[in-house]
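[step 3/7] fold_predict: job queued, chain A
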Amino acid sequence: MTLRTTVLAAAIAALPALAAAHVEIEGAVARVASPLAQTAAIYMSIRNHSDEDDRLFRVESDAADRVEIHTNIQTDDGVMRMVELEDGIAIASGASHQLAPGGDHIMLLGLTEPLEPGDTFELLMFFDVWIPVTVTVTVDNEAANALAGHVEMEMDGDADSHGDDQSGHGTDG
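[step 4/7] structure written:
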């Protein structure tokens, strides 16, 4: 192996470590309404350790036909609705962004197989600045519900608008 090939191989091998140094993803959990559900919501914390602002703009997974980045908005008549964030989620340099019930989250639409508590699957998360990051998600309704309770406490008692049935996403919950 030439020196040039060795250096190139070492640089390619270091890319996942560089991505991990750039972005830290913790607590990736999915919540499903029932074994018959066709959708699942995913929550996690994303921290940008980079000196540059970044943006999560796409997520892929073999667990569903479609994966979308969503948020909840309140309409003029006071109803909470989920909408796709087509531009993704901006994550400022040195900042964290919480994907949580009642706020930003990732939706799996058209599950390819039933998800049950304890199951795991992978997401491939795409950012503007850094290479894609693979994240292992655990199906854990209890952890997701606890996160919803934590978010409610931070919002001084505002209701969790996502709900266990993930209304607005066609779940038979």
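[step 5/7] annotate
The longest strand covers residues 64-74.
The longest helix spans residues 3-22.
exit 0
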